[in-house]
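pinging the channel bc i need a second pair of eyes. not urgent but kinda urgent?? the chain im working w is below, pasted from the shared doc
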Amino acid sequence: MINLIFSLFSFLDFLGVLVLLQLCLLCYLYFFISILIISILIIFVIINMSMQMHCWTLDHVSSI
């Protein structure tokens, strides 16, 4: 009887470890995706700014 309870507890412990692993994987995935999105946004903003600066210098040169 005690052996059965002990095996049940170890099984629950194993399930808990699995759930923890899944949570960690999920958090890692969310972290990775958010970093990816943020880096894409930053690259997009940098490209946009450089294009605007390029256009501004072209306008400036043409006005002179």
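so The two ends are 94 Å apart (CA to CA). and The CA atoms of residues 34 and 40 lie 10 Å apart. — does that match what u expected or am i reading it wrong
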